[in-house]
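Practice set, problem 2.
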Amino acid sequence: MNFAAPQDTPDFDLRAYLRGSWSVERTLLDRSTGTRGTFTGVVRFTEHDGGGLAWREEGTVRWTAADGAPFTAPATREYLLRAADTPAVLDVFFQDGRPFHRMGFAGSANRAMHWCDPDTYRVTYTVLGPDAFGYRWDVTGPAKDQLLESVLHRRDPATDAAADSPAAAGGAG
């Protein structure tokens, strides 16, 4: 399969590229304490009202608690992606409709900033190929000093469907 990278294709369709299921691996670093962690899971980009996408992430976070004890727990997050002024870009919103940032892979669209009082969140998106992309959140301010780096790989639709079946979940099949 030939893959025209977003920077090489003015009509790159980010929505079509994202649609589907992706595995995600994220490293977490609290630079103020040196504490490290991970998040592993699945991200699903599914159809949403008005031609947008729903972004749902589910997985497991592993972290070291303040007392040094290991911490493991399920974690989820959800966003809404809406069409922007070009197919190569989507606007990201929190579930409650508040704007978050702009997402894209080419030109200045691959970088965005969000201020969340009192800290600044800077993200950089990078396409890694037809079935992989990454993003890096650099969070700085008086409350946080963190670096979160995520790599996503497209899941095989057949494998993904089998993993989501009632039989795979332990139900009757």
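Problem 2, part (b): a different protein.
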Amino acid sequence: MLGLQADTGYLLYRLGLRSGQLFNAALQESGLRLRHHAVLRYLGTVEGALQRELSTRLGYDPSAIVGLVDDLERLALVERRPAPGDRRSRIVVLTDTGRGFLKDTDVTSRRVTDGLLAPLDVDERATLHALLSRVNDEHA
């Protein structure tokens, strides 16, 4: 019987868990969590998104998205606007305050990632990222 350290899925799970813990701790002062950051990060790449698109893209339950967007809207990091071409729908867009917050958290994100991946050199980090991206793209 193989130990847990021989199970790649378990190692990915543990590393993801640790990454989330460290990132949540780093964001604690702002009152946000990694899930909020993921919404902001996605919105930083688009001109706005319907909540159902956020749910699909991020893999979060639609009811969770509502709460996350509510939290972000209360902090003026995002706002809901009428969707072009469909006045019944609303899109979520990043505000200027949200863009600034996202820039500030880039430093935090790099610090957390650098700490996690400290045992790897630059080339190994690039290889790991490329491999994880490839696997992720296959399952996205």
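Answer key, part (b): The longest helix spans residues 96-116. Residues 24 and 31 are 9 Å apart (CA to CA).
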